Amino acid sequence: MATSTEIAIATTTLGSSASSITFSSIPSSYTDLRLVFTYKGATTTCYYYARLNGTASQNVCGQTVLKGNGSTASSSRLTSSDLYFSNGNATTTIPFMEQVDFFNYAGSTYKTMLYQGSGDQNGSGEVRRGVALFPSTSAINSIAFYSSGDDFAAGTTMTLYGIL
Amino acid sequence: MISRTSTSSIVQGLPKSRSFLAGNAAYDPAATFLIQRITATGGETSLTFSSIPSTYKALQIRGITRQTTNSGGSILYMQANGSSSNYARHMLYGTGSSAGASGASAQSSIHIASQTADGAINSSIFTGVIIDVQDYASTSKNKTVRAFYGTDSNGAFSNWVGLSSGLWVDTAAITSLTFTQYSGAFAAGSTFALYGFTGE
User: Which of A81, A125, A159, B171 has minimal CB crowding within 10 Å?
Assistant: First the structure.
């Protein structure tokens, strides 16, 4: 039987609320990575930021985002040591859906990522598409997500795929 | 080794139930296949996937791209079957300060991505792109393409994220896809991987 070229490496579903989720010891045997997840706030609204390879200040990342809020399309940039893929505030009942594609994550060039965030809050909400740069020539071997505003609720699910 | 089982008996080492919900290992139908991968050694003015089999439902191209020369941001183009006519495209993009849109018809290729990485920015930065082509092997439909791409140069230049749609007004099955840039050649390390989806 032929082997799929998109393979689930790891998946996490929170049994209870948590302030962070980390994928570590990511093998370097794939070409790209894809992360797909949905999250909610445990007791109130929350968003999150990501940190690659545990670096907090060693690499200043750049991000360019295109977003729409139901009435206006806009674009903005951000530079930070952390990656803010979504500024959407997931509520306790309405999850946000996110997908991040990491290109050539184990290669020797800087790492480019494309990310997609979708969150409709039934009267408000946001859709966003963005690109991020992790200016490091090291392979990405860990990805950590930290909640902000509130913990990730139980039931938050993240799956990391490797793409050959 | 092939073993024969029946639903009313148990054969050692094989499950009794045929249901994948009964604790048996999940069945992976292998829905995604890597068909070809091309990596530029540097200096190529075009990169082509050829002899694309017609056996898949859809294609996806994932890639990182960079132009060697400085054009103040390059453009990535795509052509099907070597054709240089009957293309159209639309684009929605963000520059980091404003959102915009553009479109054009009667083009010689599909404008996949704008402001892609080139000699204007750090040589370690490449543009990321994901391109989808549905029903590429149909002989009764014109071909529609969508792309998602972006470049962030950490503020130096070419900060751009976009969504594009493309059309090839031709019902021929796609058997080749060719990528070119605005000016000059692909930088070493530019890589495109072609995947086929079975649709199962």
Answer: B171
